[in-house]
Specification:
Layout (H helix, E strand, L loop, with lengths): L2 H21 L3 H6 L10 E3 L11 E3 L4 E6 L2 E6 L5 E6 L11 H6 L8 E6 L6 E6 L4 E5 L4 E6 L8 E10 L5 E9 L3 E6 L4 E7 L4 E6 L7 E5 L6 E4 L13 E7 L14 E4 L16 E4 L6 E5 L3 E6 L4 E7 L7 E6 L5 E6 L4 E11 L8 E11 L11 E6 L6 E6 L4 E8 L14 H4 L16 E8 L9 E4 L14 E5 L4 E6 L4 E7 L5 E6 L4 E6 L13 E6 L5 E4 L10 E6 L5 E6 L5 E4 L4 E5 L7 E18 L4 E14 L4 E7 L2 E8 L9 E7 L2 E6 L3 E6 L4 E6 L7 E4 L7 E5 L3 E6 L4 E7 L8 E8 L2 E6 L4 E3 L11 H4 L21 H12 L13 H11 L3 H15 L15 H18 L3 H13 L3 H9 L8 H13 L8 H13 L3 H10 L3 H10 L3 H11 L2 H17 L3 H10 L3 H11 L5 H15 L7 H12 L2 H14 L10 H13 ...
Antiparallel strand pairs: 1-57, 2-3, 3-4, 4-5, 6-7, 7-8, 8-9, 10-11, 11-12, 12-13, 14-15, 15-16, 16-17, 17-18, 19-20, 20-21, 21-22, 23-24, 24-25, 25-26, 27-28, 28-29, 29-30, 31-32, 32-33, 33-34, 35-36, 36-37, 37-38, 39-40, 40-41, 41-42, 43-44, 44-45, 45-46, 47-48, 48-49, 49-50, 51-52, 52-53, ...
Helix pairs in contact: 6-27, 7-8, 9-10, 10-11, 11-12, 13-14, 14-15, 15-16, 15-17, 16-17, 17-18, 18-19, 19-20, 19-22, 20-21, 20-22, 20-23, 21-22, 24-25
Length: about 1200
């Protein structure tokens, strides 16, 4: 190396030291500061995936993406740059106590590769994973532990599909179940809490996939690849017993050689609601995916290689065929959106496109004959990925919250995010922007236009995660933290791979800090020269003839990325480098070779000090002594500069087992002594470790020799594990534990007691091999596995994961000014409670401001917390209060106003009228026209019946009856009503209801349908034909039925759509868990104010603040309704506050609270509330003191000896009974 290069490196080191000196506090300042050391908790950093991990990816509502990495589950946070936030592989069960003995005996996890992963929809931090043998594990992601273990049984072997299912149990309580489909055509329902099989049903047909109806939990769709059918449905799935009804089969047949339907959109295929018996019929069996459409009820998407069929099961017809353009590659996956009628198509080579529903009305001049043509336009399409031969796409998933992002999983363990952007929209820095798909795309864009929407939207790659590169690997941890460097120390791990790259990982954050493409060959070894630089060497495979190779030896600065080559003249055609050893004071570097003598280099000047004689050509192990003398000054005559050197020592062993002891000071190397080989040890010493007065020697047969230099004794311990490959002492003064690596595992020993502390052995304890070892901290061993995974474990070598609170303890952005990128599920329960409270009160001072409208603010809060149920609730509230048409789409068609609902039905019947091709479709079309009060078109369809059909005579009579009833003569109505009731009594409810509708008895028809348990049919009939009180009565009966079935959520939506807010609030109260007196009192207050249309007094603010503690949706809804009804000025104090409070108190006194479980303190509070108006006035005055400082609440729970822990925001009862809060 030239002198100029040496001067440059020296200058950089001096500059780095100068910068560090400027930022480092003085000795007096340091003595006053308490050292803050970044915590390193057990975790797993994954790398290249197994071939069985294909499709093992899923995205939760909380913004977490889970993937399968070999036999582990890795979770990344999609809201924070795809940072690793959880890795689950070793754990202890919380619920299955019968497995505790098994868990304590070894590593309890998947023993085989994970092939399926599904998040629980009702609990965003609960996850299910399945391996290739059928073992199922239910995880608690926040703690990284197992909730339930379900071992593989006969019913659970070869699982090919799983789905979470929320059903009501026998005691009418909703529980989470797991629906499992195995390759033996068996369907099994599992209890996820206890791991028990509830029921199993075997089918006699080949089932390939399952899909759950998003609008009805009892409906399930099976994908079938058979010669006689394509898919089947079941509509009576229950928790207390398997489906009793037989499957309803559907077949998709080709129209080649037959009369096609009149529609050109589905020209090539037709749908048959039956199995195909004829052998000459071409049934489609090469489908790729079959699933329910999430945004439109009763619709199914069938993906073929080059097109997608949209099927409407309510009219039993293929309503649209979506072909691919010529420049598009084949389809691999389809993901339908829930909040807009659109779906994403994932193609080969990583291309993703978004298709949006389009409709076009034809024959507009004649409204009665108007028809609708539908299609799905290509809104935007991303570019493909330029993949190498080694890279493949393993899976796709869609973000379920905003539905604008698609994640692609590559076989190298990386995740790529592609997101839809709307062009031309400017970012508003003054307000929070969380674009969901319904924010980007409006319902007006459903109307087909000549303007190409692809110019409006773009799909771009926005994020890519990090992963360990291809194996094999070598790892080396940076120097440990000390009292001198703790202020700027970062726990960095250098990982070298087979491609010549070196990755720098921050183990406290599980993030990739830097990646350097340094070498052209596989990295063979690494050593750190300090906290900000490392030396690495690489070489290709050794020539079998000459034993020579071309070495690459480089020193790299981490901060700048500058790389300097070493031994440039001596690396070509030389003996391969075996190892590097840097002295403890970072003064010297020893380079050992396979056949040549080792070299000693000066690290300060990067100059060669000495090449040892040929007698030291076959060196097997080298180690520096941690003991050194004080620094001495010497003058460099070439540069007239003063250099400082300390005397250091090192030992080497050769192939005969002799140990040589050398000392080095400056450029003087002296041989001190030569110790002959120990007769009990093998001549081949493979490794040496030296710390304090302890020297360890390991040989090729597994013997461990321990020298105690202080006591001058030695001891030999046979391990019987084969060759000892590497030994490393743990960092820290007085820490005499050391790692020892074998071919089949790892041991942890303690030289103080000279005993084995922990052991990991392949294949007894693990199904992977350890290729390299190191220490991340004094109690955190680091293992690099043959699978390409880095494991940070504990001292028992059993724990490879931690709770999310431990993993995120080192996050520095505690301000959370940017709410767009905050994942509140990563915070503690109390922190989430405080954040939500401030946002509800509109007291957020960091970053952009919140909306002033209470409803819009609650919608935004639901987005921030990824709370889809609240998001759905407030959208319906916005639609009902402000007539916001964009808030609801067809996924909420039952809560739309009657006009919009009727338009949807007209669109459906017009489409069916255009594509109908058989008698069954004609019959459905006739019934829908009759439902929509279009008797003339219904008569035309009846007269079109084929005379060869068995129902031809009945259809003709129906046509005559409908025509005769169009006159004003009502003399026949009593007879028709009698016939209709007789038909209904004999089970023909549909025919009887049609007769009642013909004579104007629609309300009676709806009631008869409800009595026959046909609730949806009655609601559809009511929304299309009834108005006013008659319509409200039918909907109210439906809501009461839902309440009796404990379906409070849908009942609340019905009452809100009817603008019956008092009923909605009362139903919300039944839905809430809280049963304390305060929520009920506040409910009466809010209901009284609303029902009497009084001016809102100052108690509104009081109710609003109290609602933050009880977190009751009913109370928050009360406040929003009050403010929306009386305007923004309604919070101003009125002159008659006390009068209104007295009236409210009278309402409270008339209410019975005998059925409430009250504590003595709550009973006393209730008595005071019921006593006088003066006391309730005092109660209102003291409300602000009750919830003054939410931060103080957090401090209380943090320091309290009771050790409060909330899995959810605290209820009023929990908060009021804490020590610091006073009532």
């Amino acid at each position: 190396m030239s002198s100029s290069e040496s001067h440059t490196i020296g200058s950089n080191d001096a500059l780095s030291s100068a910068k560090r000196a400027d930022t480092t506090p003085t000795a007096d300042q340091t003595s006053l500061q308490k050292p803050v050391i970044q915590n390193i908790s057990p975790r797993t950093i994954s790398g290249v995936l197994s071939q069985w991990n294909q499709k093992a990816i899923d995205w939760s509502l909380s913004g977490l993406i889970a993937i399968g990495s070999h036999n582990r589950v890795v979770v990344v946070d999609a809201l924070h740059g795809l940072k690793l936030c959880q890795s689950m592989s070793s754990h202890e069960s919380k619920r299955n106590q019968s497995f505790n003995s098994f868990l304590s005996s070894g590593l309890h996890r998947h023993n085989h590769s994970v092939c399926l992963i599904r998040w629980c929809h009702s609990n965003d931090l609960k996850l299910c994973s399945v391996d290739t043998t059928g073992t199922i594990i239910i995880w608690d992601v926040s703690e990284g532990s197992v909730l339930t273990l379900i071992t593989a049984t006969k019913e659970l072997k070869s699982i090919q599909a799983i789905e979470w299912l929320e059903l009501k149990s026998a005691d009418n309580i909703c529980q989470n179940y797991l629906l499992v489909l195995n390759r033996n055509n068996g369907l099994t329902l599992l209890d996820t809490e206890f791991g028990e099989i509830i029921w199993t049903k075997n089918f006699d047909i080949t089932l390939k996939s399952i899909s759950l109806d998003p609008f009805c939990a009892n409906n399930i769709l099976f994908g079938i690849q058979s010669k006689d059918c394509c898919f089947a449905t079941v509509d009576d799935l229950r928790a207390n017993g398997c489906a009793n009804r037989s499957l309803k089969y559907y077949s998709i047949v080709s129209n080649s050689g037959k009369n096609p339907p009149k529609s050109t959109s589905a020209l090539n295929y037709s749908l048959l609601a039956e199995k195909v018996v004829s052998s000459d019929t071409n049934v489609m069996s090469d489908w790729i995916q079959i699933c329910y459409h999430k945004s439109v009820p009763n619709q199914v998407l069938v993906a073929i290689s080059r097109q997608i069929l949209v099927i409407d099961l309510s009219i039993e017809a293929i309503i649209c065929c979506v072909p691919l353009e010529r420049n598009c590659s084949n389809i691999t996956n389809v993901f339908s959106c829930q909040n807009r009628n659109a779906f994403f198509i994932c193609h080969d080579f990583g291309t993703v496109s978004l298709r949006l529903f389009q409709k076009q009305v034809i024959n507009e001049t004649n409204e009665m004959a108007a028809n609708v043509m539908i299609s799905y336009a290509n809104v935007c399409q991303s570019d493909g990925l330029r993949l190498t031969k080694q890279n493949k796409i393993f899976g796709y998933c869609l973000s379920p919250s905003d539905e604008t992002k698609v994640a692609l999983l590559l076989n190298n363990g990386r995740i790529i995010i592609k997101k839809v952007h709307k062009m031309g929209t400017k970012a508003n820095n003054e307000s929070i922007c969380l674009p969901y798909i319904y924010d980007m795309i409006t319902t007006d864009e459903y109307i087909a236009s000549e303007q190409k929407k692809c110019k409006t939207y773009r799909m771009l790659m926005t994020q890519m995660s990090s992963a360990i590169n291809f194996s094999p690997h070598v790892i080396r941890m940076c120097p440990p933290v000390t009292m001198r460097n703790w202020q700027f120390h970062r726990p960095l791990l250098a990982v070298g791979d087979s491609s010549g790259s070196v990755q720098i990982w921050n183990l406290s954050l599980s993030s990739l800090d830097k990646e350097f493409g340094i070498h052209s060959f596989p990295v063979r070894g690494l050593e750190w020269t300090g906290l900000d630089a490392f030396i690495s060497f690489a070489y290709p495979n050794i020539s079998p003839h000459s034993g020579k190779t071309n070495n690459e030896l480089n020193i790299t600065e981490v901060n700048s990325g500058t790389t300097y080559p070493l031994r440039t003249e001596r690396n070509m055609d030389s003996s391969p480098i075996e190892s590097l050893r840097i002295s403890h004071l970072k003064q010297y570097l020893i380079i050992s070779f396979k056949d040549d003598p080792f070299e000693i280099w000066d690290l300060k000047s990067l100059s060669l000090l000495r090449v040892m004689p040929k007698q030291f050509s076959a060196i097997t192990a080298i180690e520096w002594s941690p003991l050194y003398t004080k620094r001495t000054e010497s003058q460099n005559h070439s540069s007239n500069a003063m250099t400082f050197h300390s005397k250091e020592n090192f030992v080497v062993t050769n192939t005969t087992g002799e140990l040589y002891h050398f000392s080095i000071e400056g450029n003087i190397v002296k041989e001190i002594t030569c110790i002959p080989p120990d007769t009990e040890m093998s001549a081949n010493i493979t490794c040496i470790a030296w710390k304090s007065d302890q020297v360890l020697l390991g040989d090729a047969v597994g013997n461990l020799n321990v020298w105690d230099l202080k006591k001058k004794v030695s001891r030999i311990e046979p391990t019987h594990r084969g060759p000892i490959k590497k030994m490393r002492f743990g960092p820290g003064r007085g820490n005499m534990k050391f790692l020892m690596q074998y071919n089949d595992g790892v041991d942890i020993w303690d030289t103080k007691d000279f005993k084995l502390n922990a052991q990991l052995k392949h294949p007894r304890d693990m199904n992977f091999k350890v290729v390299d070892i190191d220490w991340a901290a004094s109690d955190r061993p680091v293992l690099c596995t043959s699978e390409g995974t880095v494991l940070v474990t504990d001292m028992k070598l059993r724990q490879y994961s931690s709770s999310m609170s431990e993993l995120l303890a080192n996050q520095t952005d505690t301000e959370y000014n940017d709410l767009n990128s905050v994942n509140f599920y990563m915070l503690s329960s109390m922190s989430r409670f405080i954040f939500k409270s401030k946002l509800f009160l509109n007291e957020w001072n960091g970053g952009p401001k919140l909306p002033d409208c209470e409803v819009e603010r609650n919608i935004l809060i639901a987005k921030l917390f990824n709370d889809y149920e609240s998001f759905h609730f407030w959208n319906i509230v916005s639609y009902a209060l402000f007539d916001n048409k964009e808030r609801l789409d067809r996924n909420n068609d039952l809560f739309l106003d009657n006009k919009h609902y009727k338009d949807i039905q007209f669109e459906k019947v017009s489409l069916l009228d255009l594509i109908r091709s058989n008698y069954n479709q004609n019959k459905i079309c006739y019934e829908m026209h009759l439902l929509l009060n279009e008797p003339q078109r219904a008569v035309q369809l009846l007269l079109e019946s084929d005379s060869s059909m068995s129902d031809y005579y009945v259809d003709a009579l129906k046509a005559c009856l409908i025509t005769s009833l169009q006159s004003n003569d009502s003399s026949a109505h009593p007879v028709i009503k009698l016939v209709a009731t007789n038909l209904i009594a004999n089970g023909r409810v549909g025919d009887g209801s049609q007769l009642l509708c013909l004579i104007g008895k629609t309300q009676d028809a709806c009631r008869y349908l409800q009595s026959a348990n046909k609730w949806l049919e009655s609601v559809c009939l009511a929304k299309c034909t009834l108005e006013g009180e008659e319509y409200v009565e039918i909907m109210r009966r439906w809501a009461e039925h839902l309440i009796s079935q404990s379906n409070y959520k849908t009942a609340v939506f019905i009452f809100i759509s009817l603008k019956q807010y008092i009923k909605a609030i009362q139903t919300l109260l039944k839905l809430n868990i809280e049963t304390t007196v305060l929520p009920k009192v506040l409910l009466i207050m809010g209901s009284y104010v609303m029902s009497n249309n009084v001016e809102v007094p100052t108690i509104v603010t009081t109710i609003y603040e109290f609602s933050l503690l009880v977190f009751s949706a009913a109370i928050i809804f009360i406040i929003v309704l009050i403010l929306a009804t009386f305007g923004s000025d309604s919070n101003k104090p009125g002159n008659h506050d006390l009068e209104y409070e007295s009236e409210i108190l009278e309402s409270i006194n008339e209410t019975s609270f005998d059925d409430l479980p009250l504590t003595s303190g709550e009973q006393q509070l209730l008595t005071q509330l019921e006593r006088t108006t003066d006391q309730i006035e005092l109660f209102f005055e003291n409300c602000n003191d009750f919830v003054v400082d939410l931060v103080a609440i957090e401090d209380t729970f943090g320091i309290n000896d009771r050790n409060y822990h909330f899995d959810s925001p605290p209820t009023y009862e929990e908060a009021v009974r804490s020590d610091k809060l006073k009532t």
